[in-house]
Each structure stands twice: as C-alpha cells, then as structure tokens.
C-alpha cells in the first residue's frame, strides 16, 4: 500500500467510526496505516487542508444537521450522539459551524452547511519542477540543543519549533557554531525532527566530530543512511512549508520511493555568505 492509499484508508476508517471517540484518536487512526501519529497529522493537514480534529468535528456537525431535519430526535439526544456532553455545548459548536442554531434549523428546515468526506485524487498540476536527489550521508553527530514537542498539533508545532530555533540562535548561535566540523555540512546548521514513542523531538545544532559534550548542549547521533534531498527554492519558513506540501501532493503520489515517517533533517547553509536550504527525508530500505 502506497502513502496515498494509506491516507485514504485512514479517512475511510474515520468515517466508519465517526461516532466512536475511543477509536478515532490520532494514535488509533495513525496505527491503522502503520504511521507515527505526528507524521499522520502532518500529512493529513498538508493534503486535506484541515487538522484531524477539525475534520472530525466538521463531519459530525454536518451529519448532526441532517438529523435535525430528517428525524424527531431531541437536540440533546443528537448532541450526545455526536460527542457533546450538553445541549448547550452542542449548540455553541453548531452555531460556529452552520451559522444558525439547532432550534432555527428544526423550525425552518433550512440554513445548514454541508461538509463532505474527503476522497483523495491525483490531480495534474502543470508539470512544475521539484529539485531533488538521492544522497547517502555518513553518520552525523549533531551538537546543539533539543526540545520535546509532546503536543501533536501540526499548526501549533509549526509555530513552536521556529520559536525554539530562534531562541537557540538568539542566545547561543556563535557558541553552537564553534562545534562545527569540516565536511559536507561545514557551513550549515541542522534541524533534526525525530519521534520517540509518539513524542516529537527537535534537535538544532551543527555537525560535529565530538564524542561527548557537557550540558546544556546535547549530542544526537544520526546514523548513516540514504535520503531524498529536496532543495527549497525560497529559504524561509514559508518556503519550507510550501516544499512540504509539494512533496506530499506532487512528488510522492507519482514516485516509487518509500520514505520513513518518523524523521526529517533540515539543512540550512547560512554561514560564510551562503543562503541555501534543503529538506532530507530518509528512504525506507527494501526488505523484500
């Protein structure tokens, strides 16, 4: 099963268990397609345009509206069925989504908005060029700082991780760079995202030759491996987010590569007058 089929399988699973809170947690849904929760939430947000919780909430409120018109169930019964503890909390969410109250819909039999299930399709996008290569790297010994981001919210982490990087740069950029060694990444700073038991970690620093390091610094070993290396046309936060979208929406659906879903490496050549940025995604080994 390729990544596009996996995402559609996950969406189908959500639809089948839409009213069962315990079965459509981020962890449960991502397990259906053998993905880390963070990667699943990221891909889901990038491709559909909605956070996972937002998609589930919108689908429920859309179906709840239909029941108001087509059944005689009480507002409270419908509220409980679609995951709300009280009629009041359901009414507030209903108004935010539909723009009118449940009582208005029941009385006037109009005013509803619909939110349909997502069906993924490959779309022709005009033959644009995405600059990439396949590269084998040696072991990387990243020295710098790291932080855990236990909240799997894609949008929130898109804000918090850049803030963490900025804090590292503001407080100790020159100190971090003193640990840099020669080689491929001599003029670069590195950002390494990885997953440990469902918790996202982000390490920021430089490639070093040190065997050990004292606090407050960390030393994170990244084993030698094969990567897909993508060049970011616009070396900025927005440019990198656009690159992520293009990889998942344009490149991977038509590619035979299988990537690992629990780590990425961001390489920014920003020292000694350089200004280039790359995203590395590790390729899964073929065990067949």
Write the layout of secondary structure elements.
Elements (H helix, E strand, L loop, with lengths): L2 H14 L9 H7 L4 H12 L3 H19 L4 H7 L5 H12 L3 H7 L23 E6 L2 E10 L4 H24 L10 E9 L2 E9 L10 E5 L2 E8 L4 H15 L11 E7 L6 E7 L6
Written overview of the protein:
The chain is of the alpha+beta class and 288 residues long. The chain has 2 domains: 3-108, Homeodomain-like (Arc Repressor Mutant, subunit A, Orthogonal Bundle), CATH 1.10.10.60; 132-282, Regulatory factor, effector binding domain (Multidrug-efflux Transporter 1 Regulator Bmrr, Chain A, Alpha-Beta Barrel). It has 9 helices and 8 strands. It has helices at residues 3-16, 26-32, 37-48, 52-70, 75-81, 87-98, 102-108, 154-177, 237-251; strands at residues 132-137, 140-149, 188-196, 199-207, 218-222, 225-232, 263-269, 276-282. The chain is elongated. The two termini are 14 Å apart. The relative contact order is 0.13.
What tags apply to this protein structure?
single chain; 288 residues; alpha+beta; Arc Repressor Mutant, subunit A; Multidrug-efflux Transporter 1 Regulator Bmrr, Chain A; 41% helix
Percent in strands? 15-25%
Radius of gyration: 23 Å
- The ordered H/E elements are HHHHHHHEEHEEEEHEE
Q: For the terminal residues, how far apart are their CA atoms?
A: 14 Å
Number of strands: 8
Computed structural class: alpha+beta
Mind telling me the CATH class of the largest domain? Alpha Beta
Helix count equals 9
Which shape, going by the Cα principal axes?
elongated
List segments where confidence is low: pLDDT < 50 over at least 5 consecutive residues: none
* Main β-sheet description: 8 strands, antiparallel
Find the CATH superfamily of the largest domain: Regulatory factor, effector binding domain
Find the CATH topology of the largest domain.
Multidrug-efflux Transporter 1 Regulator Bmrr, Chain A
Q: Fraction of residues in helices?
A: 40-55%
Strand order of the largest sheet: 1-6-8-7-3-4-2-5
